[in-house]
TrEMBL record:
Protein's UniProt name: ABC transporter ATP-binding protein
Highest taxon of source: Bacteria
Domain ABC transporter: 21-248
Key words of the record: ATP-binding, Nucleotide-binding, Transport
A molecular-function term among this protein's GO annotations: ATP binding
PANTHER family for the chain: ABC TRANSPORTER RELATED, IMPORT ATP-BINDING PROTEIN
Any one Pfam family match given in the protein's UniProt record, by short name: ABC_tran
Length: 248
């Protein structure tokens, strides 16, 4: 696709009763392995959705497709009226940076940078002043109780500290959708609860949607809606409608 892309958020899909993000009949195969088979899911602004299912059922692949990290083989991903799956790589990266916050399972922090620098990066890329970006980074590190590793590089952090730094980085831009892949996976019960509460409260404050891929029953229980994947297909009605109730 050529030429400048329209900025999402101004299109017809800004209609409050339309889904903010919609995957339709998404297929994704890695070599001979089908990871997603006709997976469909609607996500509305402000809702909290847990994606669960057995190991290998396609949860991470679905999250990556929804977040524009992976392009489906077939099917569509529409974000706020715009075909995410058809955007050129650079436009997709820019959209991701501006609108989405991602907590991935592996390799998410830049090893050469400190925790504070890692968290500040998304703001610096959007031309925030260095002092303001650093102050915001420190606030989020503090909220996730990892301010003490602000000057440490990832190699000097525990897995749980690195995971909380990654959550801070995902939230620092006040994104419209936060995607978290096993956000409590490397955390003990207490820090896992803290991370979950920060994800829930941060997205509630801004009205962002939150997608949680998880094996953790406590995380799934905190969501308003659970989407179960089985062999790459969504097992519950994909267009289950906008949730009636507010958040817990
Ligand atoms: N980059 C890849 N290359 C090859 N195969 C892949 C890749 N990513 C995923 N797969 C395969 O696709 C299928 C779905 O994987 P996916 O990681 O989405 O499942 P998952 O439900 O998130 O699993 P888990 O709960 O173990 O993290 C699996 O069979 C997996 O081996």
């Amino acid at each position: 696709m050529n030429g400048p892309q329209p900025e999402p958020g101004t299109g017809a899909a800004s209609d409050p009763i339309a889904p903010l993000l919609s995957a339709r009949a998404v297929h994704k195969t890695f070599g001979a392995t089908p990871a997603l088979r006709a997976a469909s899911l609607d996500l509305y602004a402000g809702e909290v959705v847990a994606v669960t299912g057995r190991s290998g059922s396609g949860k991470s692949t679905l999250l990556h497709c929804l977040a524009g990290v992976t392009v489906p083989d077939t099917g569509t991903i529409v974000y706020d009226g715009q075909r995410l799956d058809q955007l050129p790589t650079d436009d997709r990266s820019r959209l991701r940076r501006r609108h989405f916050g991602l907590v991935l399972q592996f390799g998410q922090l830049v090893p050469e940078l400190t925790a504070a620098e890692n968290v500040a990066i998304p703001l610096l890329l959007e031309r925030r002043r260095r002092a303001s970006a650093q102050a915001a980074a420190m606030e989020w590190l503090d909220r996730l109780e990892v301010a003490d590793v602000a000057d440490a590089r990832p190699a000097a952090m525990s897995g749980g500290q690195a995971q909380r730094v990654a959550i801070a980085r995902a939230l620092v831009t006040s994104p419209r959708v936060v995607f978290a892949d096993e956000p409590t996976g490397a955390l003990d019960t207490v820090t896992g609860d803290l991370a979950l509460q920060v994800l829930l409260s941060a997205t509630r404050e801004t009205g962002a949607a939150l997608v949680l891929v998880t094996h953790d029953n406590r995380v799934a229980a905190a969501a308003e809606r659970e989407v179960v994947l089985r062999d790459g297909t969504v097992d519950v009605p994909a267009t289950a409608g906008r949730p009636e109730s507010g958040r817990p």
